[in-house]
Amino acid sequence: MASWDDLVLWVRVRYEVMAQDQHSLTFRLPTSEDRTQLVYVHHKGVVDGHDWLQIESPIGRLDEIDARRLLELAEDAVVGGAAAVGGVAVFRHATPLEDLSFAEFDGPFRLVTRIADQLEHALTGTDRY
């Protein structure tokens, strides 16, 4: 069974953590040749008897993108979905911590960031995040 503390240690060994507090981590992952993407991981605590982890990656400022187009592009994603946080469109996915082994942590991080990066590129043509 994985815990939030286990995840923090696992991430710190593998990635350069840019920010951390009691319930969140921020780090950057490479997504393609010359692009990278920010990823935010939030410990959401126990909900309905399960300890939840939320993975989130920014796409673009809401006032600078076509939100309708974002939702249309996000339609094909296997997991996760688009949300707005503080005026920024993000791609987000959540999973119970206890369901993940250490090897399985990396997959959701990379999937969320790859999709967010593709959406950012399609909607803004930039690599801001």
Task: Give the SSE layout.
Elements: H1 4-14, E1 17-21, E2 24-32, E3 35-47, E4 50-61, H2 67-74, E5 81-85, E6 88-96, H3 102-124
Antiparallel strand pairs: 1-2, 2-3, 3-4, 4-6, 5-6
List keywords for this structure.
alpha+beta; 6 strands
Write up this protein.
The radius of gyration is 14 Å and the shape is globular. The protein contains three helices and six strands, in the order H-E-E-E-E-H-E-E-H. It has one domain (4-124): Yope Regulator, Chain: A (2-Layer Sandwich), CATH 3.30.1460. It has a six-stranded antiparallel beta sheet. Helices cover 33% and strands 41% of the residues. The chain is of the alpha+beta class and 129 residues long. The mean pLDDT is 90.
Total count of helical runs of at least 4 residues:
3
Report the sheet-strand fraction.
35-45%
**In CATH's first tier, which class applies?**
Alpha Beta
Task: Tell the overall outline.
Answer: globular
The secondary-structure class comes to: alpha+beta
Please give the share of residues in helix: 25-40%
CATH architecture: 2-Layer Sandwich
Mean pLDDT: 90
What does the radius of gyration come to?
Answer: 14 Å
Major β-sheet strand ordering? 1-2-3-4-6-5
| CATH fold naming | Yope Regulator, Chain: A
Q: What's the count of strands?
A: 6
Task: Give start-end ranges of low-pLDDT stretches.
Answer: none
Largest sheet: 6 strands, antiparallel
Could you give the distance between the termini? 32 Å
Q: Summarize the helix and strand pattern as letters.
A: HEEEEHEEH
**What number of domains?**
1
